Amino acid sequence: MQPFNLTATGYNLNYLPEYIALRHGFFKEQGLDVTVKIPTPWDGVLDALADRSADMALGGIWVPTMYKDRVQNYTVFAQIANRCPLAILKRGSAEGFKVSDMAKKTVLMKSIGGASCGLFTKMYLRESGVDERAVNYIQDLDGVMLGNLFQGGMGDYFVTDNLSALAMVAKNPNVSIAKQMVSEGDIPWSVYYRETATITPSILDKQRRFCVGLEKGIEWVLQHDAETFRDELAELFPKVPVDVAVSVTNGFRRDGMWTTTSVSRGGFDRWQLGLRDACLVSEPLVYESLVNDEPAAAAQMEIQAGKKP
User: Fold this and answer.
1) How far apart are the first and last CA of the chain?
2) How many CB atoms lie within 10 A of CB 1?
3) Same-domain status, 216 and 269
4) 191 and 79, same structural domain?
5) Residue-level pLDDT, tens digit, the chain, 309 residues
6) How far is CA 158 from the centre of its chain?
7) What pTM did the predictor assign?
């Protein structure tokens, strides 16, 4: 059994297929002993890659994008989350909500854990024809703090992860979900990457085997209604009401959160435009300059070959 150490920027429901692959032994079937560490603060994942204590990092693709040719080059080899797992909350009923309603209003957005929340929200506003500069933002605070402040009267909208949003609505009848971003198109929200210079044929082989295990985890989740493994969800997310975890999981299953381990080209190009408009890069990167799809593609071919009679 070969060790394959993962460092991740957080523990999230949109990483569910990875947790299922770990619990169901799909990585061990590939001869990999996968371990996971979550550093505090989150950018410790880059330190773990640099000192070789981690074989791969899991987080937003915006980090390898903005670091390329400036600080360190990273290569993305797989994807787990294919959609944005955020939701927009508002006070009162969400009936008749339009994105344009957010213009000239104040939006609270959590920032602890990275910049993805703000980056995506502003891109979504631009895509919807709303001038992002016409919106006021409060985003340099912890998500729990902002959630409490929003419920206490600060701001007009609150953007947070889907799981926290549904949990809040379940407890507070005075707020509602105006928009669940998972329905708003493909984007490589969470990817696996490693320092480009450290990749060897041996590493590529381990990446391929990791992708086989992860593909099986994705397939397992897509084939099972969350109601049938609610006890497992309760164990994985003990602080979340299990009915909420079931609801979010089934919503993610329905709306394309999990597809394959390959990074979608369309989603990649869309996100690169958003990152350019946010000034993280001067021009959108070309897919092949950041992503090596070979491990994921080989894993998918291996799984398909195994299904043939």
Assistant:
1) 29
2) 10
3) yes
4) yes
5) 999 999 999 999 999 999 999 999 999 999 999 999 999 999 999 999 999 999 999 999 999 999 999 999 999 999 999 999 999 999 999 999 999 999 999 999 987 668 999 999 999 999 999 999 999 999 888 888 999 999 999 999 999 999 899 989 999 999 999 999 999 999 999 999 999 999 999 999 999 999 999 999 999 999 999 999 999 999 999 998 999 999 999 999 999 999 999 999 999 999 999 999 999 999 999 999 999 999 999 999 999 887 766
6) 19
7) 0.95
